[in-house]
Structure formats: C-alpha cells, structure tokens
TrEMBL record:
It comes from the Bacteria. Its cofactor is Mo-bis(molybdopterin guanine dinucleotide). This is Biotin/methionine sulfoxide reductase. InterPro entries: Asp_de-COase-like_dom_sf, CT_DMSOR/BSOR/TMAOR, Molybdopterin_N, MoPterin_dinucl-bd_dom, Mopterin_OxRdtase, Mopterin_OxRdtase_prok_CS, Prok_Mopterin_Oxidored. Residues 614-727 form the Molybdopterin dinucleotide-binding domain. Belongs to the prokaryotic molybdopterin-containing oxidoreductase family. Residues 6-43 form the Molybdopterin oxidoreductase N-terminal domain. GO terms for cellular component: outer membrane-bounded periplasmic space. GO terms for biological process: anaerobic respiration. Transmembrane segments: none annotated. Pfam families: Molybdopterin, Molybdopterin_N, Molydop_binding.
Length: 756
C-alpha cells in the first residue's frame, strides 16, 4: 500500500486504498487541516455520480428549443458517439443561425484543484478555438469588490491578497477590527489548493502577543474562539454606517491623520463634508441603524486610533445590496487612521475569507495554461445570467458602460453549479427554460445537471492526473489518479477534444498533446524559473516520482501598499489618481444613486418587514466547499436527522414561534420556501437566522426546497449599477414550524433514467 499525494481546494492530502476503502489523511505539513477532507472518499462511489452520457428526453425527442420541462423531465442514457455527434451538430446550428455570441460560456464555478483539468479553463479554450462565445466577468465571491477596488485602491490581487500577510498580523497588529469576521471555515478553502492552513496559528500568535480582536458580525463563530474577540452583534447589512460613525468620531476628536489624507488620498474633502452634513454620521446616528450602542462605538473609535490597527472586511459583506460601500468605507477608515501600508496595519479586504489571502507570492511561476483569445467581445457581469436569459436585448448599466444583454441560445457549463450558486432559483429555472440547449459536464447529478439537456459525466480529480498549485502556496503537487474513471466518466479534456475534432478544430484544441504531454509542457516553465534563480530544478519525471516539490517564496514586504506609503509619487497605486481614492470623481461621474462618488450609507430595498421580520444570512458552509460533495460523510453527517440543512435561530425568535431545537422549520418569503432543521443558539443575533449555502436544491413541485438551499429565498439583483455583483448574502424571511410531515430529501438521487 503506497500513499499518494493529491490536492483539493480545501487541502493537500495523502490517500491510500485499505481493504477496498479509500483512506484520506491530511498532508503531514499542514498545521490545521480541514475536516472537509472527510467528504472526499464518497466522490468515487456515491450513487449521485453520473454513470453514462445522458440526455433529457424532451430535447432528444423534440429537438432544441425553449422548454418548461427542464428540471421536471426524465433522462435517457445514450452512447458517447451518438450524443457527441448530436451536440456538435447543435453547436454548429446555433453558431450558423444566431452567431457565435449566442453561445454562453460563462460557466462560472469553482470546479476542482488541478491546473490542467481546470474545467472552466478547458471549456473557454474549446469555445474560443471553435468560434468564440459570450463570456462572464467577475465572480460570485467578490463581484462588487472586484469592480470597486481598481477605482479606489488599485490592482485587485496586489492590494488584497498580497498586501497584509498573516505573519505581519502575528507580529505587528494591536487591534484587529474584523467586519464580517475571519471565520476559519472560509479560510480553509483556497482556489487551486492549500498545503498549510496558517490562519488559526497566526491569529493565536497575535492574541498571545496581546492583540485585541473585535468581531463585527451578526454571527459569533465568524472569529475563532481562541482569539476571545469582543463581539459586536451588528444588524446585518449596516457595517457601512458603523464605519462612517467611527470615521466621524475619530475626525471630530482630531484623531485623523491629516497628512496622510493630504499626501496619499484624494476625495477626502467630499467625504469629510458628507460625514458632517445632516444627518451627521456620528455614533448616535449609527447606533440607531446598527443596533450597536453609541458608547461602544465611541470607545471603539478611541481604541482604533491608538497602536497598530488593521481593518478587515470579509467578502460576504460585499455580497449584498450596496456591497461596494463596506469595502470602500473600510478602506477609507484605514486611510483616516493613516495606517494604510504599515506592517500588520491598514486595510485588507478578503483576509480570512479565503486561504490564499495573507500569503506571500511564490518566487517562481506555477504551471498554468495560457488563455486563448476569445474572438467574441460580448460579456455579462457573472451574476446577471438570469437577467440575460430573461431579457435579451434589454439595456443595463455596468461600471460606467451602457450595455445590452445578448440573446443567448445555448449555454455550456463545466465546473459550476448555478442551481446552487445563483439567487432566486425559481427565477433561474424560468430563465433556463428560455434556452434552446443547455449542456453540462459534471461528475454528479447536481440540480444544474438535472436542468440540462445534455449531461456528460466527467471524472473527478481522483480519477485523473494533474498538477496541483497556487501562486501563493509553496507546494507543487503531482496529483496521481487514485482510481480508474467511474462508470463511463471521461476527463473534460477528452470530451472537448472529441467535440473539437467533430467541429474541425481538433488540433487547435489539443496541440497534438496527451494529458501527460500537457503536464510536462506546463511544468517546464516552473522548472526553468527554478533553474534561472539557482534553485534545485528537478525534471518532470523526478518531480512526478517524488510526488511534491517545495517552491521558494518571495519577500514578505507589504507589497504595493507599503511601497506606496513610503513613496506615493515613485510608487503610485494603480488608481486614476495614483492615490487612495476615498472619494472617486470617476465613480461620481457615472451618476449612480446606488453607488455615489464616496462611501455612503444607502438604505437597502430588501429588509425585514412585518411579513418577513427576520434577516436570513446565507453564508458559506462549514462542512463542504459550496455545494461540492454535499453527500460526503462530513457534510451529510452535520445535517439534521431528516437530512435537512441546519438553520441557526436565536432562542428569542425560536420561542416567539414555538420552535424547539431539532424541529424541522419552513423558511419563506415571496420568492420561495425551504425546509431546514432548527438549531436554537445564541451564537446568532436575535432577529437573524443563518442558513448556509450548498445543500443541493431539491424542489417540491411548487419549488420549495426540501433540503434547505437558501437560494430559493435570495434576491436576484445586482449589488449596484457599478458592479452588478451577486447580492445573495442577506434576505428577509419568516420562519415557522414545518406545518406538515417533512418530505423525504431526495437531492442526492439521480433523476429517472432509462436506456435510449
Ligand atoms: P460549487 O459547488 O463549487 O459551486 O458556486 P460554484 O458553482 O462554484 O460547484 C462546482 C461544481 O463543479 C460542482 O457541481 C462539482 O461537482 C463540479 N466539478 C468539480 N470538479 C469538476 C471537474 O473537474 N469537471 C467538471 N465538469 N465539473 C467539476 C460557488 C459560488 O456560490 C460562490 S464562489 C460564492 S462566493 C457565492 N456565495 C454565495 C453566498 O454567500 N450566498 C448565497 N446566497 N449564494 C452564494 N452563491 C455563490
């Protein structure tokens, strides 16, 4: 029995077969491995695996076209060749009849670790070489911040991922003011893989040195117990008001860094005027909005003005209506304190939200595929996909542009699960019904696969060879197959190669390379960079044999923000002014009332009312990555006795509704309903319920989710006209004990299948 090293987005691991069971153990170098590794063994054998190429009966028998039966139909298992022939013909029909932009390859999703078999990347290359496609821009994770930050702070990765390191927090920070917290369940995950989870250790070291942590969140577990944080259980969605009041209080006491604001920032006069104009944004004003009392706000303002203060803003805060504002206000608060660019101080968006933030870059590039140019220029902001399908030809605003939605007829999706990740899933179902053809490759029968016309079974990483790597993780992993492909599953690369061949673009897609030849080709770049810098540079066979390779790290020097602080003229930020834009004339010029020219408190449209008096926080799950391996042992084991997802409810709200711990409850609003099992706990603020994302949508005929997917309840609207990001984090709901016997959860069963 040999241990093989493998990688996942939630950790590098060692695996071996033991009497027919796949044993998965964390990599020995990982100081704080993720329990989510426990989901992995089920990936190979679970009945949710797609066993054979499958096609929706309605599409196969009646041909392509808009169809309300998507999501209700049964499937036929078809031979690979027959189905690929039909799919190639359909791609050709759509392109010839409606143009290349009628093919949507947004195909958003996390897919799996492994640089070569990255599902979206393979699809985008395939669609690019076969004519082009409408793409998507930005992510569901950070859509609002990704558009805002280049306007106000500069290059996104440089000022977020690589500016404030965990080591600098451990060594220098006196006060960590964490808006939305830094929950370890989030930083356990890093796109591309992570070999060492350092966050708990770094926060613990800071605490042991005497640092104080302040958690601003409606959920207490958003910082680990070890840091013994002061918990400010804020009303959801109101962090911007608290940040403005902190700025106001600091400035009113004369504690702001006037010199830094003058030499390193633009827009301060406008922002200062706003803080002091009626209604004055003082602590009393913010207390009425945030539910944090004014004395606490004033005390906090005094504390952050002394010593080294780090303001962090979690990704989740910007995943809601006006999500740009807490990011911008957090940066402005750090600028008012004059701390931007100091070691362990200033502002960091996303620190603790993902495992690849707060690390230093590797000193050498990792093996990656290069992008193939897309001949079609058309795009949409990623979270506007249902709007695009429902409203082709309609105008919308995005980042200062007046744009029009294209008319997409065929959507092709790999490595993502929009019927998990999108908002208002019943609306998404109506949108997907408009397509002529919906193609999905996935290893498993997700809700998305169950709405597709063509479902092609792809392998998981466990069944193929690849290289695991991330630009800020020092371990390069030779991911060796742990099993032959399940059923008729094939690698996405193999499927797309076969399709490209049918479309006459086989060589352009494959370059004549097998998978192994691609891996050897991709590895060369890293090997050469190692040799050029005088590091040991094993050849591919040596690397493959060894199973892993430690890469050198770059310097931990505070990156662009430290350089900018030291010399704002010589090292300007990549913003229009070269400075921190606490006010932006560019954004002001767009004229958006939902994103004005400086950070501002804007009342949300979605908020609790008499009919839906509770805030539902739909955040990232602790037991899986998004919806991946939801059927795995760790995820399934944490659900309720009936298999429903757990919803956390405050004792006061539970008592008011006669709900006891363990009851199955029904969450509902005008968009839909979901069943979940109640956990009554004071870890959530009163008036707030927390239902994580990722339980596969399991709809009753009326769309009610039997399983507890919160996205049946969330609002499908952009964060603002600036960035049009996903705003699924917060929704107003009501809660009741389930009025009937809870139906059996069937989310992980395949749909009705028959041979053709
Ligand atoms: P995953 O569950 O990771 O979710 O949404 P995303 O779509 O990324 O989906 C990945 C899919 O890829 C799975 O179905 C998996 O089986 C499949 N897959 C894995 N490997 C392969 C492969 O090699 N080939 C193929 N073909 N398929 C593969 C995540 C998205 O959800 C994100 S990033 C965020 S941050 C959002 N968060 C929220 C939120 O906070 N609140 C709400 N309400 N909604 C959200 N949605 C977003």
């Amino acid at each position: 029995m040999t241990d093989l090293t493998h990688s996942s987005h939630w950790g590098v691991f060692r695996a071996r077969w033991d009497d027919g069971d796949l044993q998965v153990r964390p990599h020995p170098g990982d100081p704080d491995p993720s329990p989510v590794l426990g989901n992995i063994p089920a990936a190979l054998t679970h009945p949710a695996r797609v066993a054979a190429p499958s096609v929706r009966r309605g599409w196969w028998e009646d041909g392509p076209g808009p169809d309300d039966r998507r999501g209700h139909d049964d499937y036929l298992e078809v031979g690979w060749d027959e189905l690929l022939d039909r799919l190639a013909a359909e791609l050709t029909r759509v392109r010839e009849t409606h143009g290349d932009a009628a093919v949507y390859g947004g195909s958003y999703g996390w897919a799996s670790a492994g640089r070569f078999h990255h599902a979206q990347g393979q699809l985008h290359r395939f669609l690019a070489v076969t004519g082009g496609y409408t793409r998507s821009v930005n992510t569901y994770s950070g859509g609002a911040a990704e558009v805002l930050i280049p306007h106000v702070l500069g290059g996104f990765d440089a000022v977020t991922r690589y500016a404030v390191s965990w080591d600098s927090v451990a060594a220098h920070t006196d006060t960590v003011l964490a808006f939305g917290g830094m929950a370890l369940k989030n930083s356990t995950v890093a796109a591309g893989g992570v070999s060492r989870h350092v966050e708990r250790g770094a926060m613990g070291a800071a605490k042991a040195r005497g640092a104080r942590f302040v958690l601003v969140s409606p959920l207490r577990p958003d910082l680990p117990d070890e840091v013994d944080a002061q918990w400010l259980p804020i009303e959801p969605g109101t962090d911007t008001a608290l940040m403005l009041a902190l700025m106001h209080t600091v400035v009113a006491a004369g504690g702001h860094d006037r010199e830094f604001l003058r030499t390193h920032c633009v827009g301060w006069p406008e922002l200062e005027r706003y803080l002091f104009a009626g209604p004055v944004k003082d602590a009393d004003w913010a207390a009425g909005i945030t539910g944090i009392d004014a004395a606490t706000i004033r005390e906090l303002a005094g504390r952050i003005g002394t010593g080294r203060t780090l303001v962090t803003v979690a990704q989740s805060l910007q995943r809601s209506e006006h999500g740009e504002q807490p990011v911008w206000a957090g940066a402005a608060l750090a600028a008012v304190l004059g701390q931007v660019g100091l070691p362990g101080g200033g502002f960091c968006y996303g620190l603790g939200s993902l495992g690849h933030y707060g690390r230093v870059r590797n000193a050498v590039p990792v093996p990656t595929m290069t992008r193939t140019p897309n001949p079609v220029g058309e795009f949409i902001p990623v979270a506007r996909v249902a709007d695009m399908l429902l409203h082709p030809g309609e105008a919308y605003e995005y980042n200062g542009e007046h744009r029009v939605y294209p008319h997409v007829r065929l959507a092709y999706w790999l490595g993502g699960n929009p019927f998990h990740h999108h908002q208002d899933l019943n609306r998404l179902r109506r949108a997907v019904a408009r397509l002529d053809t919906f193609v999905v490759h996935d290893p498993v029968w997700t809700a998305t696969a169950r709405h597709a016309d063509v479902v092609l079974p792809s392998t998981t990483t466990l069944e193929r060879e690849d290289i695991g790597a991330s630009g800020s993780d020092p371990l390069l992993v030779a991911m060796k197959p742990l099993s032959p492909p399940r059923g008729q599953a094939r690698d996405d690369y193999e499927i797309l190669s076969a399709l490209a061949g049918r479309l006459g673009h086989g060589d352009a897609f494959t370059h004549g390379r097998t998978t192994r030849e691609w891996l050897e080709h991709l590895y060369l770049r890293t090997q050469k960079a190692l040799a050029d810098r005088g590091h040991p540079a094993p050849d591919f066979d040596e690397f493959w044999e060894a199973g892993e390779l430690e890469l050198p790290s770059g310097p931990d020097d505070g990156g662009v923000l430290a350089k900018f602080r030291a010399d704002p003229v010589g090292h300007p930020l990549a913003t229009p002014s070269g400075k921190v834009e606490v006010g932006s004339s560019t954004i002001a010029g767009f004229g958006y009332d939902d994103c004005p020219g400086h950070p501002a408190w804007l009342e949300p449209i979605e908020r609790p009312d008499a009919r839906h008096p509770l805030w539902m926080v739909a955040n990232q799950p602790a037991t899986r990555l998004h919806s991946q391996l939801d059927f795995g042992a760790h995820s399934a084991g944490a659900k309720g006795a009936g298999g429903q997802e757990i919803v956390r409810v405050h004792p006061v709200d539970a008592a008011a509704r006669g709900i006891a711990d363990g009851d199955v409850v029904r969450l509902h609003n005008d968009r839909g309903a979901a069943l979940a099992q109640a956990r009554v706990t004071d870890e959530v603020r009163a008036g707030v319920v927390q239902l994580p994302t990722g339980a596969w949508w399991d709809p009753e005929p009326d769309g009610t989710c039997r399983h507890g997917n919160p996205n049946v309840l969330t609002r499908d609207a952009g964060t603002s006209r600036l960035s049009q990001g996903c705003s699924g984090q917060l929704s107003a709901v009501e809660l009741e004990r389930c009025p009937h016997t809870a139906p059996t959860v069937r989310a992980h069963e395949p749909p009705p299948l028959s041979p053709v």
